[in-house]
């Protein structure tokens, strides 16, 4: 069983810990955080240090790989870049809950997290470092770009395209053949019945453009 570190220590990290424990593929040595309290434990696991401590911790604990537990898409990419720079030899592992339903021909990129109750249907493609949250679904022939996310309960119809860094929030629905551009955000509970350009916030039923946004703007 390979030793891993989890980078992040919030609620998202707790869900990932549960997935890793249920998968039984990796041994979690501990977690990293920007400002760790070394006396604190997260679900029984120690906070071992900061991101800059990664090279030292890799040697001390014989770490083979990491899982990034950062919910914000843009921030997650920054953390991945730092980890690659500091420890280029490290693997990025995915975490897939045993109760997720994944079609045999679906493709899943490295570092992606798929939670309980998720459904990924045939000929779908999921990029690197994506999040498919609890009870979300990605229908046939749909694609998620790198660093995208589906919040709990999101339904994505068939033949949809979600551009890099875009986030679909809780309970939103995309009807079939919708395209979401890059760095866009779909508000919670929205019904998206027409495509969304890049760098937009849309909300409502049907979803309408609320405003433009910049890359990295907070949405969680």
Topology:
Elements: E1 2-7, H1 11-23, E2 26-32, E3 41-42, E4 45-49, H2 54-61, E5 65-68, H3 73-86, E6 91-92, E7 95-96, E8 101-102, E9 107-108, E10 113-114, E11 119-120, E12 125-126, E13 131-132, E14 137-138, E15 143-144, E16 149-150, E17 155-156, E18 161-162, E19 167-168, E20 173-174, E21 179-180, E22 185-186, E23 191-192, E24 200-203, E25 208-212
Parallel strand pairs: 1-2, 1-5, 2-4, 5-6, 7-10, 8-11, 9-12, 10-13, 11-14, 12-15, 13-16, 14-17, 15-18, 16-19, 17-20, 18-21, 19-22, 20-23, 22-24
Antiparallel strand pairs: 3-4, 24-25
Question: In words, what does this structure look like?
Answer:
The chain is an alpha/beta fold and 220 residues long. It folds into 2 domains: 2-92, 3-Layer(aba) Sandwich (Rossmann fold), CATH 3.40.50.20; 96-212, 3 Solenoid (UDP N-Acetylglucosamine Acyltransferase, domain 1). It has helices at residues 11-23, 54-61, 73-86, and strands at 2-7, 26-32, 41-42, 45-49, 65-68, 91-92, 95-96, 101-102, 107-108, 113-114, 119-120, 125-126, 131-132, 137-138, 143-144, 149-150, 155-156, 161-162, 167-168, 173-174, 179-180, 185-186, 191-192, 200-203, 208-212. Strands 7-10-13-16-19-22-24-25 form an 8-stranded mixed beta sheet, with helices on one face. A 6-stranded mixed beta sheet has the order 3-4-2-1-5-6, with helices on both faces. Strands 8-11-14-17-20-23 form a 6-stranded parallel beta sheet, with no helix packed on it. A hairpin with a 4-residue loop joins strand 24 (200-203) and strand 25. Acetyl-CoA binds at residue 170.
């Amino acid at each position: 069983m390979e030793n891993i570190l989890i980078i992040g220590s919030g609620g998202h990290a707790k869900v990932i810990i549960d997935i890793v424990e249920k998968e039984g593929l990796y041994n979690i040595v501990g977690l990293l955080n920007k400002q760790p309290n070394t006396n604190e434990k997260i679900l029984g696991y120690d906070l071992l240090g900061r991101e800059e401590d990664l090279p030292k911790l890799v040697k001390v604990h014989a770490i083979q790989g990491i899982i990034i537990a950062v919910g914000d898409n843009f921030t997650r990419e920054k953390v991945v870049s730092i980890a690659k720079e500091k420890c280029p030899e490290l693997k990025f592992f995915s975490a897939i809950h045993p109760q997720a339903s994944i079609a045999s021909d679906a493709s899943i990129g490295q570092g992606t997290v798929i939670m309980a109750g998720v459904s990924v249907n045939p000929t779908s493609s999921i990029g690197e470092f994506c999040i498919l949250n609890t009870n979300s679904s990605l229908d046939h022939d749909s694609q998620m770009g790198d660093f995208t996310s589906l919040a709990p309960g999101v339904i994505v119809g068939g033949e949809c395209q979600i551009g890099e860094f875009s986030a679909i929030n809780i309970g939103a629905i995309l009807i079939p053949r919708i395209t979401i551009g890059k760095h866009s955000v779909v508000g919670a509970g929205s019904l998206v019945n027409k495509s969304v350009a890049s760098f937009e916030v849309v909300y409502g039923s049907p979803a309408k453009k609320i405003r433009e946004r910049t890359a990295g703007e907070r949405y969680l």
